Amino acid sequence: MNESIRRFNTFTGVFIPTLLSIFGVILFLRTGWVIGNTGLIEGIILITLAMSISFVTGLSLSSISTNKEVGVGGVYYIISRSLGLDVGGTIGIPLYISQAISVAFYLIGFAESLRGIFPNISITVVATVVLIIFTVIAYIGADFVIKLQIGIFLALIAGILSFIFNPHFSLISHNLAPHYLNGQNFWTVFAVFFPAVTGVTAGIAMSGELKNPKRAIPIGIISALFVSYVTYIFIAYKLACTAPYTVLQKDTLVMVHNSIFPFLVYIGIWMATLSSALTFIVGAPRTLQALAFDGIVPSMLAATMGSKKEEPRAGILITYAIAQGILFLGSLNLVASIITMFFLITYAVTNLAAALYGLLKPPTYRPSFKVPWYISAYGVAGSYIVMFLINAGATAVATILLLLLYGFLRRRQYKQAWGDIKTGILISIAKFALLKVNEKEQDPKEWRPNVLVFSGRPEERPYLVDFARFLSFNDGLISLVNILFSSENENMEIKKQEETRILAEFIKKNKLDFFPKVIVARNDKEIFPIVAQSYGFGTVESNTALFGWGRNLQNQLRLIRSIKELTNLRKDVLILNFNHSRGWGKKRNIDIWWGGRGGNFALMTFIAHTLKEHHEWKKASIRIMRVVNSQKEAQIFEEAYKKLLKAARLDTEVNIIINNEQKTFHELIKENSMFSDLIILGLGIPEEGKEMETVKRINLITEDLPTTLFVRSMTPKDIWDIG
User: Fold this and answer.
1) Do 287 and 74 touch, CB atoms closer than 8 A?
2) Helix (H, G, I), strand (E, B) or coil at 485
3) What is the C-alpha to C-alpha distance for residues 524 and 278, in angstroms, rounded to an integer?
4) What is the pLDDT of residues 198-211, one digit of tens each?
5) pTM of the prediction?
6) How far apart are CA 39 and CA 51, in angstroms?
7) Which helix (H) or strand (E) holds 506?
8) Are the CB atoms for 101 and 283 separated by under 8 Å?
9) Where are the beta strands (DSSP E) in 486-631?
């Protein structure tokens, strides 16, 4: 917004629009009806409750608006910059609709008041004529509207004083208790009254055109709400002293008929209703314009259509169309109830934003007008509880529709150039959860793989990403790690940022629940153990390292040398030798070759069964392969294995191989698992100085084999609950 467009001060830009919206149709045409139903005592409670929700919302808006620049869109701008564009759009769209409906609401009130003089006029026709005139006025520009509002304000005050100074006081004793009409109760009356206090949103509708919004919004809103509350309470008391409840319930013009100068009250009614309609026909298009600026709705809806002062003329015409459609309803009470639900939702979310800011206290939240978080929380609870008390069914439907709208906007993945409080919420939740997990002793039966996948650039080793994806299906935590090596004088920050971006985009594109991590190192000496032991929070640390078995002999040797250090740190090591020609095969057969020692059995079977739970491997069968030298050994081991697997509730076949011909292990694997899709083998810790022998043995064993996973486990053996 160009600075030359900022031309309104606290009084003209906030106080008067807020007060005129509150001193509207409800004040003159429905306050008597409210007191006639509720009686004075419950009426004061009703007014106080409604005002308290609006007042708290005003405090929340003031707090947020004194922390950041407030632009075009008022409440929508504040919510979207606090909770993100998806939440802002979810609230902004119904907020705009409610503001557009409000135009019709006040015009219906104006036309209804004319029936006191012209009983046979058509409410729809009169309201439509005025709507067209007001649309033209708004089209000309907000400056003209603001100038009109000052004169309207003075006329409105004259009308209120004409009623207040009527000396008639006599009937209060008959109007203390409630006398509800059939079909009415406290909450249905509340629904009709509540639009009277929605002026707090009108007060910041011009936020993008205020000279000093951080000062104008708090002072203008709070002072207007205070003045309006005192006025409503006094008028409620005066009405209770003026006419019996039977008259208050039926005579919508009771304030006219009981004033010193009735024509002044008429003028006050007309000014109040017309000024409120003007306020919303000017403010609503600005909310729509802000939605269009942010891409929530088509950009054409922000068109100024030649306005030199950037008036949202396209929005004005759309607002006219909505208001015209609502005019055909014709019922003031019905339209009031619709508006109430929309505004209560907006108030709830506005207060939620302020409450979260106050509770989480992010470093960037330093408002000059501070409000305790629990005050704003009252606004959240009060708004939503009142919605349910008014109409639980309508509230449930509105909530579902908003969730659907949020889901739609969420999928559009808006890009925004600002942070929002949702990140702070998630960090706080994550911190709380991590601290709680850290307090508890880790139960081996609750073990989950927290895997560091040393993938480099993942598109170069997609098979590692696939395998990690299979493992993560059982609530595992997976991090893709890319290690960058640099010289002593090389600045790697820019390259690290770029590689992190590439890694994050890969994860997002492939819809993976993984974390990206780029590490910068000076050399490759012990880099794997250093990364593995330093990654994590408290007890939620990495427990498994996954590597690919490449073809470079030096890289293979470096990896084998790292195994001892990793196992000393109690880290499991997985090495995947991927058969590029066969890939994952048909994902039907998994063979686990276990020698009966080495402590790898628990993790090997855990991996196999985790894969089987993944939808791509759900038809896979698992075999435990064991080599023995005699039939007697075969019977002993088969019985022991079946008992163990039954206790662990593992659906696994046991296949005992009697090696009468004393074949090599390599030969036995080829004979029995050549057509399997995945082979899982245990891996011993290489002896010092014999690392190259281990490398050669792995290369020999895996030659021409299907995809093979080597497992070196430090995981507790009782991860299977067999107690």
Assistant:
1) yes
2) strand
3) 71
4) 777 666 655 566 77
5) 0.66
6) 18
7) helix 493-509
8) no
9) 514-521, 536-537, 540-541, 544-548, 572-577, 589-593, 621-628
